[in-house]
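Continuing the series of single-chain predictions for the mutant panel. This is the parent chain; the variants come on the following pages.
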Amino acid sequence: MKGPIYAGADRALARLASGEYICVDTNSLDAIDYLLGWDMEVNVLPVFRSFLQPESVVLDIGANFGLYTAISGSLMRDHGRLYSFEANPHTFDLLKRTLYANRLAHQSNITAVNALVGETAGRGTLHYLPEYLGGATMTDIGQGGEAKRSIELDMITIDEFLPAGLAIDLVKIDVEGHEPFVIRGMQKTIRRSPNIRIFIEFVEAFLSYTVSADQFAAEIEALGLRICRLSPPPRAELELIERGQAPRGANFCLLTRTPEEDIAHAQRAGKHLSARVARYIRRLEAAWDRYRRARHRR
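Parent structure:
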C-alpha cells in the first residue's frame, strides 16, 4: 500500500513504515503526520521499541489513535499483556479500529479502556478540540473558544484497575500535563514492578497548570526512579537528569530505576538501528544502480 486507505468521510487507515496500521480522523491536524507517511516520534519510538519484548506487560495511557498500542500489540500478539487507555469516546472509536486493522481486536491479552486515568477514581472532565484530538486535556485553560468541546467521563486509577499483584514492564504516558496525577494513582503498581520503565511526556508549560515541574520531579525521585531525558529528534539518546533537577521546556523522558544501564542499552540499540538504516540505504542504492543499468541497455 502506497498511501492511506480512506474509510468514510473523516476516517483513514495509514500504514507505518514498520507495517502497522493506524486509524485516524482526517479532520484532526495530528492525522497529517500519518497521512503523509512521516516518521513518528523518531527520538522516542526507537528507544521504546528497544525495551519492548514479546512477553512484556505494557500500559499505553493517553493512547490517542493507537501508535504505541499498535506497535506493542503487533510484537506481543498472544504473549505478554497490553492495556490501552483513551478517554475521548470519539478517539477511542478510532483506537478500536486501529486494533482491528492490526488483527489485535480479539486478543484476550489486549484490553482497551475508555476512561480517564488519574489520582483518584470517580468522574472528570475532558476538554478537546475536534481539529486536534491529540491535545485533549483535563485542564481547561480557557483556549479554543467556541470550537472547544468538554465531556464528563469516568476516571480510574491504575492501582485500582489492574489485577492485584501484576508487575508492569513498560508504560507510555501522554496526557497533556496530567502525568503527575496518573503517577500518583499508580504508586503501588510502580513499587511492585521492579523492572518498570515509564516513557512520559514532561512539558513544563503544561505542568504549570497542574503540578510544577520541580514538584513532579521530586515526586518521581521519591518513588526511587531517575529521570532520563530523550534527546531531541533525530537522535534517540538518553541524558540523565541530576537529582534535585527537573527537565526544562518540552520533553519526553524515561523514568527508570537503572539509568546507567538503560543509557548504555539505548546507545547500543541506536548503533544497531543506524547499521540497519545504512544497510537499507545500500540496498536502495544497489537497486537504483540495477535500474539505471537496465534503462541504459534499452
